[in-house]
Amino acid sequence: MPAVSSGYTYDDHLPADFSAASLRTDATAGLTATRKRLPPKWFYDKVGSELFEDITRLPEYYPTRTERSILMARADAMIAASGSGTLIELGSGSSEKTRLLLDALTDQVGEDASYVALDVSEDALRSACAGLAAGYPRLRVGALRADFSHQLQLLPTGGRRTVAFLGSTIGNFEPAERAGFLRTLRSQLGGDDHFLLGTDLVKSPDVLIPAYDDAAGVTAAFNLNLLDVLNRGLDADFDRTAFEHVAIWDAEREWIEMRLRATRDQRVHLAAIGLDVRFEHGEEMRTEVSAKFRRDRLTAELEAAGFTGQGWWADPRQWFSVSLWGTA
Ligand code: SAH
Ligand code: AVI
Q1: Residue 318, Cα to own-chain centre: how many angstroms?
Q2: Which of 1, 53, 264, 292 is the right S-S partner for 202, CB 3.0 to 4.6 Å?
Q3: For residue 110, which of 141, 81, 138 has the smallest C-alpha distance?
Q4: Which of 1, 38, 8, 35 is closest to 22 using CA atoms?
Q5: pTM of the full predicted structure?
Q6: Strand 8-12's sheet: what is its strand order?
Q7: CA 318, 254, 74: angle at the middle one, nearest 5?
Q8: 17 CA to middle of ligand 2, Å?
Q9: Is 188 exposed, middle or buried (CB count within 10 Å of its CB: 0-12, 13-18, 19+)?
Q10: Which of 23, 115, 120 to mutate to test the pocket of ligand 1 (most atoms within 8 A of CB)?
Q11: Which residues of 141-156 are buried (b: 16+ CB within 10 A; e: fewer)?
Q12: Closest to 201 (Cα-Cα) out of 310, 39, 309, 66
């Protein structure tokens, strides 16, 4: 049974040992691979979630403010086109931009409106949902702590639902994972349900690279925080000062890649998994991809998963889009 607190329900579907067990598996696989890598979901401990919010306010990081401008102008149309009373958001984080959709939802469906935030981060979920419950007294608010890569079967059912996936978080999947995610999501949605998707669009590397390598070093701190997560979670001895943040634009794959580069030869001990890992000076570990999209290719991917396009909204510079997909 979900617990009710401060006006919202809280439902935790991650196993008690999620952080420990799943981090162990990911770290063992990623750090013993020929090209070392870690999945980006480990960025979002309390510090990492706060650093991400700082990133969204950086002058160089255009995605959040651009997506917000699109929602400010068109949230009413998006909610009207979906005809939904229930908004479910994947990777909801602070749910800040979501307020624009919730304003439209509560205006259009009144007492029948409900919102469910799904995220792996308990801190982010609790602070977002407490704020929303206080700010929207007529809205039913629920928090669902779950992993959207593995637990989409937990999405609440009933009524006409819109699943929102904002911020271009879909770009943090690799292509095969993204295709699997879209197919699974489609299999969970029925005739009247919709998918509302925020996607960052391909643009000049002169804009893209600074967005992931800002002058104030906030993105570097976000990236390096991953080493603190490993140190704490796996009793490891990564030295933050022995790594540097790297952001490159891969023009062929059309994605930004964030990496951590070793600034000297070193050996790292991860006591909790009994693993010793060597890094050579200059060796890089991939920590995130952030794919950028083109409308035609995105449409082909969504259609291949069984979605049909029902709306496309972009800013005047065509830097970001929010699109609505049906299932019929
Ligand atoms: N949607 C917000 C936040 C984006 S940051 C925005 O547009 O600003 C990405 C969010 O996804 C973080 O809150 C992180 O905790 C969450 N997240 C990352 N991987 C996840 C996963 N596998 N399952 C659920 N949430 C995840
Ligand atoms: C959450 N995600 C969409 C962000 C992005 O832009 O890929 C995460 C991020 N990484 C560095 N800066 C922001």
Answers
A1: 21
A2: 292
A3: 138
A4: 38
A5: 0.97
A6: 3-5, 8-12, 140-145, 114-119, 86-90, 161-165, 194-200, 320-326, 308-314
A7: 25
A8: 26
A9: middle
A10: 120
A11: bbbbbbbbeebbebbe
A12: 66
Instruction: Give, for ligand 1, the residue of 12, 53, 119 to mutate: max count of ligand atoms closer than 8 Å to Cβ.
Output: 119
Tokens representing 133 are 């419950």
Given the CA of residue 56, which atom of ligand 1 is nearest to it?
A: 8
Using the predicted structure, report yes or no on whether residue 15 has a pLDDT greater than 70. yes
Task: Please tell me the total number of residues recorded for the chain in this structure.
Answer: 328
pLDDT tens digits along 93-136? 999 999 999 999 999 999 999 999 999 999 999 999 999 999 99
Instruction: Report CA(160)–ligand 2 centroid distance (Å).
Output: 30
How many angstroms is it from 142 CA to the middle of ligand 1? Answer: 16
Confirm or reject: Cβ of 320 under 6 Å from ligand 1.
no
Residue-wise pLDDT for 238-284, tens only, equals 999 999 999 999 999 999 999 999 999 999 999 999 999 999 999 99
Q: What is the mean pLDDT of the chain?
A: 96
